[in-house]
Write a structure and sequence with these properties.
The complex is a heterodimer. By secondary structure, chain A is mostly beta strands. Chain A has no helices and twelve strands. In chain A, strand 8 and strand 9 form a beta hairpin. Chain B starts with a strand and ends with a strand. Classes of the chains: A mainly beta, B mainly beta.
Chain lengths: 114, 109
């Protein structure tokens, strides 16, 4: 079985500060990994994905994530937070294969202080 | 944006009544999914479909049924709604990536 752990439920940073949202996964086979963002009262939007190509993945809005197999991690970072980054962020994992399903973490709410 | 719509967007109903939520896609994708989102639980898969008339259960399928008679439509039915089914429901479709609809906020009183 596959699973995702997002430690903590809330992260608060100052505008301009580094954003680091942690995600650790468990999978019996090499996984595909995803980060989604959800703005208030909206659906989920894909930020970036890892599909076994480059281990450093760049996404939209200046976010990136690095796949580290030795640490079973896929942490999301952004060098400088902007007020518009305030949202809920979900890490998700799925196996390769046509019929595989996404498993989501519980999500982390990011607040950005002026 | 992927062409996914959900209807209704908001619904308030009473315990014991049947409720059907609709997901419609214009992308002709084979895979469609229903999730529920609850605080502290993230998104949990209810049911999914891998083709017309082909559906299977997810991790929280009790109390829910689905149907898919056309590629573009995936219906989620609560046969007898309970207060524990108060939630936000998201439909998703999948090609290379998974895309989500705008959600339906369901309140069961």
């Amino acid at each position: 079985a596959q699973s995702v752990t997002q430690l903590g439920s809330h992260v608060s940073v100052s505008e301009g500060a580094l954003v680091l949202l942690r995600c650790n996964y468990s999978s019996s086979v090499p996984p595909y990994l995803f980060w989604y963002v959800q703005y208030p009262n909206q659906g989920l939007q894909l930020l970036l994905k890892y599909t076994s190509a480059a281990t450093l993945v760049k996404g939209i809005n200046g976010f990136e994530a690095e796949f580290k197999k030795s640490e079973t991690s896929f942490h999301l970072t952004k060098p400088s937070a902007h007020m518009s980054d305030a949202a809920e962020y979900f890490c998700a994992v799925r196996k390769t294969g046509a019929n595989s399903k996404l498993t989501f973490g519980k999500g982390i709410t990011l607040s950005v202080r002026p | 944006d992927a062409g996914i719509t959900q209807s209704p967007r908001h619904k308030v109903t009473e315990t014991g009544t049947p409720v059907t939520l609709r997901c419609h896609q214009t992308e002709n994708h084979r895979y469609m999914y229903w999730y529920r989102q609850d605080p502290g639980h993230g998104l949990r898969l209810i049911h999914y479909s891998y083709g017309v008339k082909d559906t299977d259960k997810g991790e929280v399928s009790d109390g829910y049924s689905v149907s898919r008679s056309k590629t573009e439509d995936f219906l989620l039915t609560l046969e007898s709604a309970t207060s524990s089914q108060t939630s936000v429901y998201f439909c998703a479709i999948r090609g290379d990536e998974q895309f989500f609809g705008p959600g339906t906020r369901l309140t069961v009183l």
